[in-house]
Amino acid sequence: MALKIQFSTFNLECGTDEAGRGCLAGPVTAAAVILPLSYKNKLLNDSKQLSKKNRILLKPMIEDLSISYGVQHIFESEIDTINILNASIKAMHGAISQLKTIPEYIIVDGNRFKPFEDIPHSTIVKGDSKFMSIAAASVLAKTYRDNYMEKIHEEFPMYNWKQNKGYPTKEHRAAIKKYGITKYHRKSFRLLPEQYKLDI
């Protein structure tokens, strides 16, 4: 199904999405994008459906042709303090606040959001596979976060963040078990399955 350009009747509609919500390490990263109504891009889709090569290809296309875009990381210590849902919403708010053009309407991937200033919004489940601006935001959030994870991989290569990007893979959990945790790990997350077992 082709992605739609518009949800609302407003010309300046911004799509927002985040990446890294389910990760054990690294930030949660959100992007916000306003696309022109004439925007066309056959390659664009939900970032989870795209290859890494195509996401990298799309990033400059989105940045060059969007009316405006913003990207915001919220880091581990803040995630641990305010919880991942609030951190995800804060990241989206941060990305929207960076837009050089104020949006008239905001569409959000998922089902949870807090109003941003007095701009009307709608939450759309699987919005990143329905609307171009959310798909574009998902691509930017994912590529910016992946770049960050590849950088911190150099500091702690044993966790292989270059590959797993901080997600809870078997390999990542095995490395946590062997080496312990780093300053980039989210302390409030269940980092190992056995954290659930109580010694009774």
Low-confidence stretches: 196-200
Structural class: alpha/beta
According to DSSP, the number of beta strands is 5
Assembly context of the chains: single chain
Order of helices and strands: EEHEHHEEHHH
**Which CATH C-level class of the domain at 13-148 is it?**
Alpha Beta
Main beta-sheet annotation: 5 strands, mixed
Average pLDDT: 94
CATH topology of the domain at 13-148: Nucleotidyltransferase, domain 5
What can be said about this structure in brief?
It catalyses: Endonucleolytic cleavage to 5'-phosphomonoester. This protein is α/β, with parallel strands linked by helices. It has a domain at 13-148: Ribonuclease H-like superfamily/Ribonuclease H (Nucleotidyltransferase, domain 5).
Structure description:
- The chain is of the alpha/beta class.
- The protein has a domain of 136 residues: Nucleotidyltransferase, domain 5.
- The chain contains 6 helices and 5 strands.
- It has a 5-stranded mixed sheet with strand order 3-2-1-4-5, with helices on both faces.
- The C terminus is likely disordered.
